[in-house]
Structure formats: structure tokens, C-alpha cells
Amino acid sequence: MSNLWQQLNGDMSTIVESVRRNLVQISNGRRGAGAGTIWHANGLIVTNAHVVAGHETLKVTQPDGATLPARLLATDPDHDVAALAVDANNLPTIVLGDSRQLQPGEWVLALGHPWGVLGAVTAGIVIDTGTPLEIPPARGEFIQVGLHLRPGHSGGPLVDVRGRLVGINTMITGPNVGLAVPVHIVKNFLRQALGSPSPTPPVTEPVFL
Active site residue: 50, 79, 113, 153, which one? Predict the structure, then answer.
């Protein structure tokens, strides 16, 4: 049994190390900061709309510590997704998963920078997918996960046990209950907004991270 746990720990650590290469920090020029996920090697980054809303000065800090100015390309407040661009090439990209195939009980990992802790990871299980009862139907689909998201996880990747991107962390709706925007929603957003195909105390109300 101990060998099994050692193998599991090793596998999870490898996944986290790989996904961290695709995780960036987004600052808005004030006190706020969130996370972002590198979507394309040519500098396309996906985050939450609420992370960048109302801010003209945006900067992206890469995992190696390099900081670049970012341009807001498109935003969709209803689905809480946004696309940024930085002048960079050959960035590490994340493998995309299929959020429509997620099943309740599957393990997932969420990465971000909660309370300024860079590259922090939390793990939990999928509760359900679809439109949560506490969210207006017009907001669309979300992945409901049983893990502890905190301020600073917003815009970071939600990945499956193979390290594939299945969602973008967005908000919490209760103690240890979080929501993520499914990756197929993000694909549709990018396709419509940019013409871009897919690349390689208890909380009683939704709280943006």
C-alpha cells in the first residue's frame, strides 16, 4: 500500500509541475491580482472577465518571473472569461481535455495564486456539471467542484488527473464548493471573439475569487 501512495504522490507532483509551466499571474496595476492560463504559444492567455474588468493597465508575470504588459483582446462577462495577449513566442501550452466527459466523483486539481501564494494547488472531486441552481440560467454551464478555491485562484487552470485543462477557475458558491468555466465554453468564446480555433464564515452567495 505504501508503494501505491508513493506512486500516486509522484504522479500528482509531476502533473502539478507540468501545469505550473502554463500558469501566469495577472496584475491590474493596483492591488488586485489573479491567475491566467497560457492557451497558445504565441502569447494568448485566458483568464476571468472579473480579473481584468475596468483595468486598463494589465501585466502578466510568467513562471520564470518575467513580466510583460498585456493587451485585453476580448471579454465575456456572462461566462466570466477573457482573452489577453502578450508579446511572446514559444510559451509552454497546456493540453486541452474534454469538459463534457467529466463525471461526478472524478478528481481534479485547481492551480492559482491564492492570497499571493504563487502556484498553489488544491485538489477535490467533480460534484456536477451544468447550470448550478444558485446561478442565473443565462450564465450557462459550469463545472461544480468540491475543493477549496480562494481569492487568487481566479483565471487559473482546473485540470484532470492527466493534467489536461478542463476548466478555468472562477468563483466559490459555498464552503469548499467552487465553479469553473468548462473548457468547451472557453473554446467557443475564443472562436467567436477572435476567430481562433482551439490550439494545441459560510458563503451563501457566489463570491468571485
Answer: 50
